[in-house]
Amino acid sequence: MGHWMYKITVCLLLLLSSCAQVGTISGGATDDTAPRIREKGMNPPNGSTRFQSKTITIAFDEYIKLNSPTETITLVPSDAKVTATVRKKTLTLNIEGDLKPETTYAIYLNGTVQDITESNDSLIQYVFSTGTFIDTLQYSGFVADAFTYKPVKDVFVGLYAPGNDSTLSKKPLYFGKTDISGKFTLNYIKPGEYKVLAFEDKNRDMLLQKTERVGFKDELVKVDSAFTDSIPLRIFSQSLKSRVRSNVFQGPGLINIGAVGTLDSARFFVDGEEITVNKRFKRDSVSLLVDHGQKSQLQLVVRTADFQDTILMRLGEKERIKSPSYETNLESGGVLLPKQKLRIRFSDKIISFDTSLIQLIYSDTLKLKYGLQQINENTLEVTIDSADIKELKFNILKNSIKFRRGESFVSSTINISQKAERDFGSILLATENLPEYALIEILLGNNVVYSIKQRNLGKNKLIELLETGSYTFRAILDVNENGKWDDGNLAKRQQPEEILFFTNGLKVRPNWEMEVTLVPEK
Q1: What is the pLDDT along the chain (522 residues), one digit of tens a residue?
Q2: DSSP characters for 238-267?
Q3: What's the DSSP call for residue 232?
Q4: Measured between alpha carbons, how far is 343 from 379 in angstroms, rounded to an integer?
Q5: How far is 76 from 133, CA to CA, in rounded Å?
Q6: Which among 191, 276, 306, 323 could bridge 241 via Cys, Cβ 3.0 to 4.6 Å?
Q7: Element (H or E) spanning 13, and its range?
Q8: In a 3-state reduction of DSSP, which class is residue 432?
Q9: What is the CATH number of domain 326-419?
Q10: Is 20 helix (H, G, I), strand (E, B) or coil?
Q11: Number of other residues whose CB lies within 10 A of the CB of residue 413
């Protein structure tokens, strides 16, 4: 009895050990590949001539499902209707209607077919001719971002018949999508002249939407051979009418506004009174200094030539009565550049300040002289003469500043790290073959640290007080001379402003003057 019990115990332990080693069953690797057509899986074959069939079958390498076939299947020319059914791994297309003789047709499946599990899809093109030959012309090109000139993948590119509205209200005659390198190729094209349009087509309806980036050719493209276009299609965001997307109350007296579109020419009204902009952060975001009078809500109106938004802002009590906060113009790490003045911007209007309660200190106890003035309703500017002292503290003591709300500033210390001119480098900049209106920008990483018009550059320009690091350069061909890069406008047939890039970057070192002559890339 004991012997058999021993054997049973050993077997159970082995079984449990085996189960423990199996672990949790997983679904395996994610399938990120779209269904593929089997070799010789099309019947009639792709590229058939003298086509007379009413049905086409396409066999795939895995089980498939349909995705909105009425929206995603297109026949070009659209002389008949194409419907679809699926059975297991096979797609059947049915042609309903009469096809014209001696005509090349293309059926586009724009995400029509998906796999069962991961819903991966692709663009499939099936071509046939009711005559004895198939149109074989080809048009290839490249799509890039209008600002960065980097390639953009999965962009829809279409050829359209000439006409005033053919690119806006009709689907294209021929189309394709860009690959990861931004390249596209449209096949089986009939000889002729076409409009060219590229857009993101996020909803896959083959119609341009206002929210989709777009690029276009100024002139008709003549296709009479296998043609590769060397000039890229540059896609840009369409200019949208500004709409307020965010409004944040920063107590006790600031309203920060963000918009979809530019606020360059916007006017602002609070409870019917026009308010000037206190600070512009970017083209689409500003800050207003307001007097809410302890109201729990304000009516904010943002008005431009294109729109007017009215927002009822609710002001929380805690924000209304809070002590003012502030921001400075110090660089990262509290760095104050040589010859730069410290600016302190508060979140409420300054009524008065007492310099006896505001101190500039070094070595924890030693006081230094400084200059202090108010440069607008909520900003103080500090002049520091002791440039040779690296580490300073600017102490704002309790009751030193009186604000509109009546509350005094509690207290705060601003740590300042001064750098000498020898800690920075400089660039002696010259350019070649640029128009006067070119806006030359110097970048450290992705940040523009300096910009200048070509006409103001002269023969060369010394740019000083540059932090150490690797710099690059670009030039915006600012044709309208508004000091910034402008998107295109499809309705007005205006291309986005061009940007020139330069091959020669530069590494700036402390206390060095580097010479650079910018020559545009070819």
Answers
A1: 444 433 333 333 333 333 333 333 333 455 678 899 999 999 999 999 999 999 999 999 999 999 989 888 988 888 899 999 999 999 999 999 999 999 999 998 988 999 888 778 777 889 999 999 999 899 999 999 999 999 999 999 999 988 766 566 778 888 889 999 999 999 889 899 999 999 999 888 888 998 899 999 999 999 999 889 999 999 999 877 778 999 999 999 999 999 987 888 899 999 999 999 999 998 889 999 999 988 999 999 999 887 899 999 999 988 988 889 999 999 889 999 998 999 999 999 999 999 999 999 998 889 999 999 999 999 999 999 888 899 999 999 999 999 998 666 779 999 999 999 999 999 999 988 899 999 999 999 989 999 999 999 888 899 999 999 999 999 999 999 988 899 899 988 999 999 999 877 899 999 999 999 988 776
A2: --PPPEEEEEEEETTTEEEEEEES--TT-E
A3: P
A4: 7
A5: 16
A6: 306
A7: helix 2-22
A8: coil
A9: 2.60.40.3710
A10: helix
A11: 12
For the chain, the structural domain boundaries read 37-129, 137-235, 243-321, 326-419, 423-518
Give the DSSP letter string of 118-171. Answer: T--EEEEEEEEESSS----EEEEEEEEETTT--B-SS-EEEEE-SSSSHHHHS-
Alpha carbon distance, N-terminus to C-terminus of the chain: 93
Residue 294's CB is within 10 A of a number of other CB atoms, namely: 11
Task: Tell which residue, 501, 434, 508, has the closest CA to residue 470.
Answer: 508
Max CA distance (Å), the chain:
107
DSSP-H helix ranges across 357-485: 454-457
Query: CA 148, 151, 155, 161 torsion: positive or negative?
Result: positive
**Six-digit token string for 38:** 């089997």
In CATH, the number for domain 423-518 is: 2.60.40
Cα dihedral 305→311→317→323 (10° resolution): -20
5 sits in which H/E element: helix 2-22
Domain boundaries 137-235, corresponding CATH code: 2.60.40.1120
- Number of neighbours of residue 215 by Cβ within 10 angstroms: 24
124: left (phi over 0), alpha (psi -120 to 50) or beta: beta
326-419 with 423-518: one CATH topology? yes
Residues 450/442, Cβ–Cβ less than 8 Å: yes
Pick from 141, 116, 128: which is nearest to 65 by CA?
A: 116
Strands (E), 204-322: 214-216, 221-223, 227-228, 233-235, 243-250, 254-260, 267-270, 273-275, 277-282, 285-289, 297-303, 308-314
Q: Which CATH number describes the domain made up of 37-129?
A: 2.60.40.1220
Residues shown for the chain: 522
Distance CA 384, CA 343 (A): 11
- Rounded to whole angstroms, the Cα distance separating 138 from 383 reads 67
CATH of domain 243-321: 2.60.40.10
